[in-house]
Amino acid sequence: MSITVRAPAKINLHLGVGAPRADGFHPLVTVYQAVGLCDDVTAAESPGWTLGVTVPDWIDPDAVPVTGANIVDRAARLLADHHGVEVHASVSVIKSIPVAGGMAGGSADAAAALVALDRLWGLETTDDDLLALAAELGSDVPFALVGGTALGTGRGELVEPVADPATWWWVVVPSDQGLSTPAVYRRFDELSPDAPEEPADARALLLALATGDPVILAGALHNDLESAALDLRPDLADLLELGEASGALRGLVSGSGPTCLFLAEDADAAREVAARLSESRSVVLVTNGPVAGAHVVTYA
Hints:
The protein is of the alpha+beta class. Helices cover 34% and strands 27% of the residues.
C-alpha cells in the first residue's frame, strides 16, 4: 500500500512580530495563505525506514537534508512515539516549494508526512492530536495541515481559519541563495530593539480580504521581517522594485525571505508580470490561493 499526500506552500499576507518572549520565541500575529505551489510526500509499506527527495533543476539538491536531519524523519519519529509503534516506511518527497525561501516548504513536508504515515500505519490520530504534534515540529506546520487562509497567533502555531472566498494571483520569484530564518530574526532584533511585546494586529488585512479587491489587499500587505531580510540581502529591494515596475500591484518579501511575492490583479496580469520578470530572472512562478491544506491525492 502507498499513500501520496500533497501539502501547499504558505505566504504571509500579514506578519506582525513582537519582542522575543522569555522562551526565545517571538510572538506573532500573522495571516497565512496556502498557495498552489505544493510538495508531494508518498509513504509506502516497508520493513525499515528510507527517505528520498526529488527536486526540480532550479532547487539545489544539497540544500535538502536526507540523512536523518530532514523534518520528515522527525515527523515520523514523533508520530510513532505518540502511538508507541515502530518507524517503518519508504517515503519519497517530490519538492516544488522553494527551499529556505520563506514559504515553509519543510513545514509542508512535515504536515504531509504526518497525514501520509497516519493513514499508512492505520493510526487514526485525532485532528487535535495531529495539530499538537505539528506544533511540536514547527510554527508553520499546523497551518500546512489546515490550509486555506488563517489567522496565526502565539508563535504562529495557533491557527484559526479565515473566510476568504476570493482567488488571489501571485508571482513568486525564488532565490538561488537561501536566507536563514534565525539570522533574519536576529537582525530584526538588532534593528528593532524597542519592538512591542504585542505584535501589530491584522485587522486592516482581514478587512482587505473581505472586500475581494486585489488593489485594496495590496495596500494592506505587511511584513515586519521585510526590513531585516532586505538589510541582509539588499538585492531583494531591487527585485521588489522591478516587480512593481513590471505591473505588480505590490511586491513583498515572503516571510523571512528570500523568496519575493508579487500580487497581481488577475491571472492574465500575473502571467504578464511573470513574463517581464523572466527576462532577467531564471525562475519565475505563477500561482494562486487560497488552496487546501495537506490532503491525500492517491491511495493505492
